[in-house]
Structure formats: structure tokens, C-alpha cells
Amino acid sequence: MRITPARKKEFFNFLFVAPHLVLFVIFILIPILFGLYISFTRWDLSGSPQWAGLDNYKEILFNKDSTFHFQFFNGMKNTIIYVVASLPLLIGIPLLLALAMSAKVKGTGFFQAVFYVPGLFSISAIAIIWLLVFNKRVGPVNNLFGSDAVWISTQPYAWIVILVVSTWAFLGGNMIIYRAALSGIPVDLYEAADIDGAGAIKKFTKITLPSIRFQLLYTIVMTTLSSFGIYGQARIMTEGNPNQSTFTIMMYIRDLAFSSGKSISGMASAMAMLLGLLMLVVTAVQFWLMNRDK
Amino acid sequence: MSIDMANENTAAGKKKRITTPQIIAFLFLLIMTVTWLIPLAFGVFTSFKSEKEIKSVGFQLFPEEWTLNNYKKALSNTTSAPLMRWFGNSLLISLSHTILILLVVSMTAYGYSRLDFPGRDKLFFIVFIISMFPDVVSLIPKYKIVDTLGWVDTIFACIIPGLGGVSNVFLVRQFMLGIPKEYDESARMDGANNFTIYSRIILPLVKPVMTVVALFSFTASWNDLLWPSIVFNNVDKMTVTIGLELMKSLYGDYMYLGQLMAGAIFALLPTFLLFLFAQKYFLQSMSLSSGVKG
Q1: Is the model's pTM score more than 0.80?
Q2: Do B5 and A138 touch (CB under 8 A)?
Q3: Which burial class, exposed, middle or buried, applies to B47 when counting CB atoms under 10 A from its CB (0-12, 13-18, 19+)?
Q4: Does pLDDT of B16 surpass 70?
Q5: Residue range B41-52: average pLDDT?
Q6: B76-288: which CATH topology?
Q7: Does residue A187 form part of some domain?
Q8: pLDDT at res. B291
Q9: Residues 192-251 of chain A whose Cβ lies under 8 A from any Cβ of chain B
Q10: Per the CB < 8 Å rule, is A20 touching B169?
Q11: What is the CATH number of the domain that holds A227?
Q12: Is position A275 within any domain?
């Protein structure tokens, strides 16, 4: 290839994206491919991986006596419980808050900040603070509201704790998306509906919801995806208990590969692949469902 | 509860009288806000109570005797839970990471949006698609790569890998695509080269979106729990987020609740302050990144 001035110019142009491309290949592309490869091997992070074909997958999915089978299905079950239960909380409540704020009441700036800021705190700080809130002796939940529950170590209270904390911490982001979306709806739509005598519910379902359809889809997809990775709250607050009933799949994967003792990375990678594939499928289904009736 | 939105989404100044829906909305927001503030309030006030008081006095919001002891103890710990050191580590890591992100993201977005080279858009598309794959799969290989590079227990493990991310590049590229090409062309006619155009013309124009990128990058880096828990074994090298996790396992029971709260409050101060000073950018990040809107 002749090195013409044009080619030279193109090369120097390419240099602007080259550093990022190198970083991308090393820290994103290769790990994905390598992760796929390891899932077909037995490996303890040192030495070379031993090829094992589909053994890991077969054991995880079909071997009822295997600990890994138990861990995978228990972890997935718990994670899915969280994903399903948290979605309405992380979509519905911020939507309500955004609607209330669009009523142009005083102090929305302050209100908005209160709901948004918790998302900026470390999950470990959040967990510590909320453990105080649910503390039987000195926390407000048991003492102010007269509850007798032992929150962290019994079910369904452990799940309630995780869901409450997650909602507190994470709904701010969706809330400001909805606020922006709601403020973009033309007023005349509502005024025309008023003239037609439409009630509040009808206005909500026929005007508001369709107008923010895109943002709803976006937040639903993103929230679901990030919920699949739930880790911090379960790790620090309930530690996966009682009886591993809040042990999430992310916790199992991480512990299998990185806890003390021998690293079981092949198995962990297989679980990670299965989780990743499930996440992709769920996302595709969500897109399909929401675009179905156009 | 039905909120009649018809009268509410009006242009500013149209209606001065307060409507019933507005009162409902305001009360709803007020109740939610107070509820939202409870955990933080308890955390903060408890951090100023002496350990003795926490153990003896039962449930109470305000300290009977305010003390700075918890903070003093927590901040002067240099052995089991070196909070100050963790804080310094986090600061170094998050600042370095953010500065590098600004550099890499802006250069890369510039290259992909305003510089021509063969296959440019196809390349970006492929990179973008690959980055959509769930990153749970790449967790273990990333660690192995970082380990091979000798970065375990160093700040580089938390600074460098994230620089290969694509979502920020996508965002800034989107923003840059909106800048008229004439700016570049007239500058080139005056003899400017790529770098000059990038630094003198384009960078100043993307300050708003870069500010958003910086704020979110810093916050994400500060609050990261899973990855630092994998790459840091040495207590002295930890970030404040995983340090808190350690602190909780050491202090979690009734012995040192006050110190634990002091640690948590101290850890969330930087991102909280960031928010106070840059609220505008956090809360309007959605309209700035409206490349995502339909």
C-alpha cells in the first residue's frame, strides 16, 4: 500500500481512537472471549486451564448432587426474586414522585435532591446506615413503628430490608429521567383532553404514559440489567442469609473465583456465561414486549 | 389517589391559585421526603453519640451528649481499619481515573465523530455492540490480566481497566456530532491540525457533557464495591468503600456502632459535597445526554 498523503492523514486521524481501542481490546474484548473459553475448562487462576468441554455446564444445569448446581439455581432464584420485586419499586415510585413534582409545587428542588443523593453514596455506607435503622435496640423501625421483627436474620424480613434499601438508594436516577420526560409533554394535549371531558386516569394512560414510552422502556431495561448484578446490599447487610436465601448469583460467582481457598474459575465462568446469556434474553424479550403493539 | 395533571403542566405563571391536586402532591412529597431523610439523620446523629450512650440509652434520635470521639477514633486508626489511608487511596484512584477518563473519552469521541479514517463508523459500531455484552463474564479474566500486569494491590488495578469503557464515548460522540463541521473546516483552512482543533475548538464546546462524564466517573469509581474487593487484599491499599465493608465485619456488633457510623458518614462526604457544588450537572444530566432520547 502506497503511503500517500491521504493515507498518512488517515493514520494520524486513527491515532485519536487508538489508545482507547487498545484499552478496549485488553480490558473488554479479550476478557469476554477469555471468559467464554474458561467456562469450558477447569482452572484455579494459576497454571493452565484444563479443557473440560461442556462438563461445567452439564454439572451446573443437570447434576442435582452438585454443590455448584445448588449454588447456581439458588443464586439465580434469589437474584430473580430481587429483579422482579424491585422493578415496580424502582419504576413505579420514582414515576409517582416525578408526577407529583410536575404539579409545580414549592420546594421541588429540595425534594429532588433528597431522593437523588442517596444514589451517590457507597453501598457499604448505605448498608451500614440502614443496619442502624433496622437495629432492634436503637433503630427507628422497631422502636417507632412498634415492629417485633428480627429484620436481618429472618424471612421475609430480610428481603424486605434489601428491597427497601435498594429502593432508597437507587430510585433517584429514574426519577430525574421521568421528570425530564414529563416536562417535555406538550400542555395542549392535556387541555384538549380536558375539553373532551377526560378524567385523570384516562389522561394518565392515554397521554402521559405513551408520551414517555421511550424513557419508560429505557429505564425498565437498564434497571432490570443492573438488578441482575445485585451484590452489595446482600453481601453486607444480610450476608446472603438466612440460610443462603439472599445469596445472589453475583455473590456465588465472585466467591467461587476469589474467595479464600482454591479458585474454581471454570465453574464460576460457566455460571457467569449463563447469567450473561439470561440477561441478554431478558432484555430482548423486554424490547419485544414493549414494541409489540405499535 | 388520583392526581389530575391537566391543570398542572402549564407554562410558568399561568395559574397562581393552589389547586387540590397540588396540595395532595405536596403532602405526598413531604411525607416521602421526611421518610427518605430518616436513615441519614439517624446515621449522622448516632455518629455523634458516645459508644456508652448508644449502649445504655435505648432508642433516641438526638445525642444526649454530643461527642467527636467516634470520628477521632475512626480517623486515627492506622491498623485494623485505617480509614484515613483508605480515604487517601480512594481520592488518588478516583481523581486519577476521572482525569484520564476525560482525556481518553474526549479524544476518542473526537476521533470517531470528526476525523475520517477507513472503516471508522463500522469500527465504532462493532466496539459499541461488543461492549453491550454483560460484564459479569469478563470479571474473572480481567482479574487475571490485571494480576499478570502486576497491578493487584495497586491503584492501577482500579484506574486503568475502566478506561476502555464505551458508554461515555458514545455519549460524548453523540454530543460532538451536533457541532457544525464548519468550525473544523474553517480552522483547518487557517492551518490548524487535528490536535489544535480538538483542544482549542471542540473541547471548550463539550464542557457541559464532559462535566457530567467527570462527575459520574468519579462517583462510580468512589463507590465501586465488587471490583476493588477482588483486586485488593492488603488492608492498607483498600479503597474507602471496601474498607467500610471490612470495618462493618470488625465493628458490626454493638461494640463500636458510633465509630462505624462515623466511618460511613466520612466515606460519603466527598460525593455528597460534589453533589452540593455541582447539583445542576447531576440533575440535568439527562437532558444533556439526550442523545439517548428517541
Answers
A1: yes
A2: no
A3: buried
A4: no
A5: 91
A6: MetI-like fold (1.10.3720)
A7: yes
A8: 38
A9: 193-194, 199-201, 203-204, 208, 214-215, 218, 225, 228-229, 231-232, 235-236, 250
A10: yes
A11: 1.10.3720.10
A12: yes
